[in-house]
Specification:
Beta-Lactamase; 5-stranded antiparallel β-sheet
């Protein structure tokens, strides 16, 4: 389905400034739908047919059943079937009345509000009101009075605000609580949820007719909203158990603030949950940090033992074990900074390359080149894959260029690590321009412990595949190791 911007440009022929205005309107219009207890539809004239209207957007109320069941976005309608909308677009005024749109199927109260951008009417905001449940309550009447003020602001091009949205994820909604302040800052009315929130921050007096400072509550956000005619947000804490968010939305008349609507939301439980999550994340980071430290301690012990060993083979085995432990420590070092089930593998690769360059001694110059990326991987894949790649890079640096000095007195070996994601698989290729593997080589009967470890990690733990082949001299020669593992290790 086409987006609002695409429909507005292709079907309504609107320019970028007008589209930007409509995008900001639809980012905040769930507030309008809730205040009006009604479905809202955004319609604009069809650029190719002056007698047709195209629907650019649609929103349903959260506090009342919808009266428009089908999805209207992108549909075309004859202007004659929406006379109130057609009239509002032509006259640039709000038009109300009863109509029987086909999408509703019964007489419905319809409001058509012109939407102005840069002085021109570019669309109409259509309110489709469903049947009311008995006489309007005091709060419903107050909601509708705010809705009328916002409709006047839409027609005057002062709503939506350029500075900020007034509805959306993380912001208080109508059902959370509303306080309406008059031009002098006195409370006209407050919903029960808003009064309960005020009680939680220490306001015990009756609120109507009083200003918030008189009630013992001073909001800098309210002062800024009245002074600068822009929505502002402030969170008030009382101890560690109470947190109330106040979203102050100025209601403008002739570009001056005539009232302020304050949306109130009690976020105490959410803040408490955030503290629990942060505490757990800190604990997880500390665990990974301690595991990394323990692995580095083991690595140091192995390195010290290797220095004290007289047998060359024993010393080599201990140093190889020390490098493998450090490869695992690299993963936990990254996890200590980014706790969770996933880890940035590209950061691990950079550390692995530095590890191989620092620990592996070669009799000839060797350059390690990395291309591509794997992005974020689960720790179930990242840990064994890191160990496997460290082994493959080490093996290439140590053994791929053993005969280079016979052919060239000053050779330069190149080891390339190419990373890629293909569908739900991670692919890693390690290639060198060395001597290649012998004709009798078989991965099922590897000649080194390192290759045995790599084979078992890839096939058994990661449920992947590994292939080792010799590259033809015409293609550059050397050895190519291709590893493919599923991104979900449980497969």
């Amino acid at each position: 389905m086409a987006t609002l911007a695409e429909l507005a440009a292709a079907r309504a022929g609107l320019g970028e400034p007008a589209i930007d205005h409509l995008l900001r309107l639809t980012a905040s219009w769930s507030l309008l739908a809730d205040l009006a207890f009604s479905d809202m539809v955004l319609m604009a004239p069809d650029a190719d047919d002056p007698e047709a209207l195209v629907v650019l957007g649609q929103v349903r109320p959260n506090n009342r059943a919808t009266v428009v069941t089908p999805d209207l976005v992108g549909t075309s309608h004859r202007a004659a079937d929406w006379p109130l909308v057609h009239r509002s677009l032509a006259e640039g005024e709000r038009v109300t009345g009863y109509a029987s749109p086909e999408v509703v199927g019964e007489p419905t109260l319809v409001w058509a509000i012109p939407v102005r951008a840069n002085g021109a009417v570019v669309a109409a905001l259509v309110r489709l009101q469903g049947p009311m449940r008995g006489p309007s309550s005091l709060y419903e009447q107050a909601y509708l009075s705010i809705f009328v003020r916002l409709c006047d602001m839409v027609a005057a091009s002062s709503f939506p605000f350029r500075e900020d949205d007034v509805a959306g994820p993380g912001l208080p909604r109508v059902g959370d609580g509303i306080i309406l302040l008059d031009a002098e800052g006195r409370v006209d009315f407050a919903t029960p949820n808003a009064v309960n929130a005020l009680h939680r921050v220490g306001v015990a007096l009756s609120v109507e007719g009083r200003t918030l400072p008189e009630l013992g509550l001073r909001l800098r956000a309210l002062e800024r909203a009245r002074a600068f005619a822009m929505p502002t947000l402030e969170e008030v804490d009382r101890g560690s158990d109470v947190a109330i968010v106040f979203h102050c939305v100025p209601l403008l008349e002739d570009d001056r603030t005539s009232a302020v609507m304050v949306l109130v939301r009690d976020v105490s439980d959410l803040r408490r949950l955030n503290r629990v999550v942060l505490s757990k994340e800190a604990a997880v980071r500390e665990v990974h940090h301690r595991v990394k430290n323990n692995l580095q301690t083991i690595s140091s012990l192995l390195r010290l033992q290797a220095r004290r060993s007289l047998e060359r083979e024993t010393r080599t085995a201990l140093l190889e074990a020390e490098r493998r432990v450090r490869s695992i420590a690299v993963v936990h070092e990254v996890l200590s900074r980014e706790p969770g089930e996933d880890v940035s593998f590209d950061e691990i690769v950079r550390s692995l390359v530095l590890l191989v360059e620092d620990t592996v001694l070669a009799l000839h110059p060797v350059e390690i080149v990395v291309s591509g990326e794997l992005g974020v991987l689960s720790t179930d894949v990242a840990t064994p894959l890191a160990v496997a790649l460290a082994e493959l890079l080490t093996n290439a640096v140590e053994h791929a260029f053993v005969d280079f000095t016979d052919a060239d007195p000053s050779p330069v070996g190149v080891v390339t690590l190419r990373l890629a994601r293909h569908g739900d698989e991670a692919i890693a290729e390690v290639r060198d321009n060395g001597v290649g593997v012998g004709p009798d080589f078989s991965l099922d009967a590897p000649t080194s412990l390192g290759l045995s470890i790599v084979r078992d990690l890839v096939r058994t733990q990661m449920r992947g595949t590994i292939e080792i082949t010799t590259v033809e001299p015409a293609a550059g020669g050397g050895t190519l190791v291709r590893v493919e593992v599923p991104l979900d290790a449980r497969r």
